[in-house]
What does this fold into?
Amino acid sequence: MAETARKPRLGVWKFASCDGCQLSLLDCEDELLAVAGAVDIAYFPEATRGDVKGRYDLALVEGSITTPHDAERIRDVRRWARTLVTIGACATAGGIQALRNFADVAEYAAVVYARPDYIDTLATSTPIAEHVPVDFELRGCPISKHQLVEVIAAFLAGRRPVTPAHSVCVECKLRGNVCVTVAHGTPCLGPVTHAGCNALCPSYDRGCYGCYGPKETPNPAALGDKLQEQGMDADALRRVYRTFNAAAPAFREESERHGP
Amino acid sequence: MANSEPVVLDVDGLSALFEALKRRGYRVVGPTVRDKAIVYDDLDSPADLPEGWTDEQDGGHYRLLRRDDRALFGYVVGPQSWRQFLHAPRVELWHGTKSGDGVRIEADPMPSEPLAFVGVRACELQAIAVQDRVLMGGAYVDPHYRARREGAFLVAVNCGRAGGTCFCVSMETGPKATAGFDLSLTELLDGDGHRFLVETGTDTGQAVLAELPHRPAAAAEIAAAAAVVERAAASMGREMRSDDVRDLLMRNLEHRRWDDVADRCLSCGNCTMVCPTCFCTTVEETSGLTGAESARSRRWDSCFTMDFSYIHGGSVRSSTRSRYRQWMTHKLATWHDQFDMSGCVGCGRCITWCPVGIDITEEVRAIRGDGPN
It folds into this structure.
């Protein structure tokens, strides 16, 4: 055996989520072989068989905590992970399933399941960081595969990932997009939303839906006043802030300003 | 320096201007309609210009409207400025490759294609002059800016109307182009036809003009062109007293208006992204998965982000209040100390393109105490 330094071991874990974010890793197509070459993908139920016990240098965690069992399981993952990175809106903000945080989960279960007594679930959906220390959070619903590759590359190089926390507006302007809200009157969450998607929706003439959650130092109330001016009523305002990142504090507070 | 008598160019002459510029190897850039706005992009001929369009602008509001004539320059400035060509949003600086025991660093190539801008407004000429001062006028010259700026050919257009957020008269930057252009045009649309009064600013401008079909301007045409500019000057959508603004702001760094504006400000950075004089950038370092490649690029940054003032331990300007105050006092006050000029040219973009319509002229009035609040 020649040099072959041990490659960092990567594991991918899933909690309450749709799998879309971890599939972004498989979507990497062009970069996938490079990723597989750079790290030892030791645990990834979506792509490999069998699981390997032991220490993980990098744990990618998708999904939110919605059951007592998962609240325990994430502690195990943390215990075995040197670096823990949460990926996606579920893991970083509780996801769309955090709509339960605004309602009565027993009532939901009664409506959805024939035998709700089989369901053992928590009253809330919460981000991973509320349960264990997290080293880095990658935002998005779903995450951007380019940003995922960037996070892995940064981890390998021991540097900070380039994933700016500024608004989607900055991405629009860097792309040369005409502002859909100022020039077309289209309601847009871009000014309060974390960058990362490269302004996907505004680039196709639509307002931003806030998939990446609140940007740094957001001001959702001031934007709420503007959205109201553009014709949104209280119901619409509550809903626009209550989607994939409904439980992110800045969005939650603004949605609650417009109703229960 | 050429400064001959004004001449008249008809619409065919304008086509000839495009041809002459292309013949000389310029990449011709100018206003055109895209996504319901007037943007700056590559132009092939005057047919690409926004013929018969105008714009309606107010705080956080921009709409394209039809004019009842065929004016080619009957609008004011849009969401973009020439900065996107001279001081590009992203510039690749260098990339490095690891091979064997060494690392090879290669600078990314500088642009070499000369630019010709058609339709530069007076406020924009001043904005270019501001960036020239900042990026080329001191001990440290930005080679990337210089590579794009030197050799650029500027065709100015004098404004025939002011937009709803224009205040160039207050900032003494327009509406008539007085310096910094190779050629300047004033569009005339009257009973005598659609034509342009042309003035020359440089020898290169004079040489290009010599290739175009033109005739001397009649006295009535010179008077008509002056009237066009006067009409624009008399119709400014905004005004801002600027003679004392530096001292006014520096005396009021703790004014309660900064708290008020911070309540409304989204800290989204749009004002800085559309400002034609903003010049701040950050550098981004990236590395590949194999560790064999790395690259450095720079991109526009904004003083409204937390990273902008991040130093060891945290951001210096963590509140929106401090970030808005930094932006506005830099534009209107400390720019004078730093560069001996104002950082604001009165183009109104920061007002129009602020999603919530924060108005720099209104903020100044409020701090002065003779406005609302």
Summary: Residues 320-339 of chain B form the longest helix (20 residues). DSSP finds 13 helices and 16 strands in chain B.
